[in-house]
């Protein structure tokens, strides 16, 4: 357990305590308090829920840490982080690189949970401890609350950390859903989209033999496999076959987490038995939002606007499920706007240290096992010099009382 000072100047909150949690048993013990915090933070998403992150953390010991902020016994903020070790630019030293914890399962949105009214003091306490911790680079991906990201950035001075900030007010798009699809069709999409939906949607005059399947539970697994194969065919040319397979594996991991939670929603479009396309969603019933995370379409079906029809059917499905928001996920903002969606903020941050914290290097002990594997790879490759330097660094950083 570590402590950091709070409150920040101009904040009236009392002293806060920051605990570093990197054992699953302790993370499990936080579940009740975490879930209370989820319910109180209006900016929470399913991707910051305890149940979601448990799937990321349980199989990955030594690769994650949660910075938990307490006011007395009350949990007021959590910042989930993932950890990896890499060789530094000199190829002779090892360094810790931190990212958002949800990236272990490729979560599209990350960030932190915070009790309303504690943002200044809690983020200040987190930053105060982060400044003293050993790491070379920290990346926070997919932060949906830019003011929280900006407050964290302001706690670091430009002389010690190089900062980059990507994204902004229009980094993603959401559609506010009415209670009926007919209302949506009349109210939100532009004229070209509306015409295409009315002409080609299953059940309309021009439907041909189109059918829509809504898959969840056991039935979703086979559909998901077919969808990912279609996605790989479409992306192998631009990405390369190996990169497309690796990306598909990450999507499978992400959507597998949703499936295990009962939060996977697939909308599949077929013509007879042929798969034309599918959209995969992670659903959040508590907040009544459907997050689109992956789409795949048969680009050879040139006589039909597959992507348009499929998106319309996904919106119809979301309305039928009682959701009040539809998140377009990775879709281009211009495309989402055509369906009536509005831009929403999304930022990503990268902090690169210009030097190690005083009195230490940039290797965190949490990554010693991963560091030893990198050293072993160097030994097996015959690179004795860098292997010896890395091993010496690990030994110098070891706590003599630790059993690790």
TrEMBL record:
Keyword Transferase: yes
Alphabetized Pfam families for the sequence: Acetyltransf_6 (PF13480)
InterPro entries found in the cross-reference section: Acyl_CoA_acyltransferase (IPR016181), BioF2-like_GNAT_dom (IPR038740)
Cross-referenced Gene3D superfamilies: 3.40.630.30
GO molecular function: transferase activity
Keywords: Transferase
Record protein name field: Acetyltransferase involved in cellulose biosynthesis, CelD/BcsL family
Organism field: Cribrihabitans marinus
């Amino acid at each position: 357990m570590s402590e950091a000072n709070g409150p920040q100047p101009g904040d009236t909150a009392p002293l806060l305590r920051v605990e570093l949690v990197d054992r699953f048993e302790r993370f499990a013990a936080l579940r009740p308090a975490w879930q209370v915090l989820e319910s109180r933070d209006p900016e929470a998403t399913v991707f910051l829920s305890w149940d979601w992150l448990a799937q990321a953390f349980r199989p990955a010991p030594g690769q994650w840490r949660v910075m938990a902020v307490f006011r007395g016994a009350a949990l007021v903020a959590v910042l989930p982080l993932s950890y990896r070790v890499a060789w530094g630019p000199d190829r002779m030293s090892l360094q810790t690189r931190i990212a958002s914890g949800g990236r272990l399962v490729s979560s599209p949105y990350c960030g932190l949970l915070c009790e309303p009214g504690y943002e200044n003091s809690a983020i200040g306490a987190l930053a105060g401890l982060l400044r003293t911790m050993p790491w070379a680079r920290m990346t926070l991906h997919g932060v949906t609350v830019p003011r929280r990201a900006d407050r964290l950035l302001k706690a670091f001075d430009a002389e010690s950390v190089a900062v980059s900030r990507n994204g902004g007010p229009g980094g993603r798009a959401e559609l506010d859903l009415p209670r009926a699809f007919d209302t949506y069709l009349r109210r939100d999409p532009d004229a070209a989209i509306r015409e295409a939906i009315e002409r080609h949607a299953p059940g309309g005059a021009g439907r041909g033999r189109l059918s829509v399947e809504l898959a969840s539970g056991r039935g979703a697994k086979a559909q998901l496999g077919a969808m990912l194969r279609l996605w790989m065919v479409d992306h192998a040319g631009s990405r390369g076959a190996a990169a497309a397979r690796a990306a598909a594996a990450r999507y499978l991991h992400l959507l597998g987490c949703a499936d295990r939670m009962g939060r996977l929603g697939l909308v599949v479009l077929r013509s007879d038995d042929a798969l034309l396309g599918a959209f995969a969603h992670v659903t959040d019933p508590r907040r009544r939002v459907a997050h689109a995370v992956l789409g795949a379409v048969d680009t050879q079906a040139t006589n039909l606007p597959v992507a348009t029809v499929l998106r319309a059917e996904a919106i119809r499905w979301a309305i039928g499920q009682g959701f009040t928001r539809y998140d377009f996920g990775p879709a281009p903002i211009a495309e989402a706007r055509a369906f009536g969606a509005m831009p929403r903020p999304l930022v990503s941050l990268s902090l690169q240290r210009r030097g190690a914290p005083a009195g230490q290097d940039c290797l965190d002990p949490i990554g010693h096992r991963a560091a030893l594997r990198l050293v072993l790879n160097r030994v097996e490759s015959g690179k004795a010099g860098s292997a010896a330097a890395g091993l010496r660094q690990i030994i110098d950083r070891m706590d003599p009382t630790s059993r690790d």
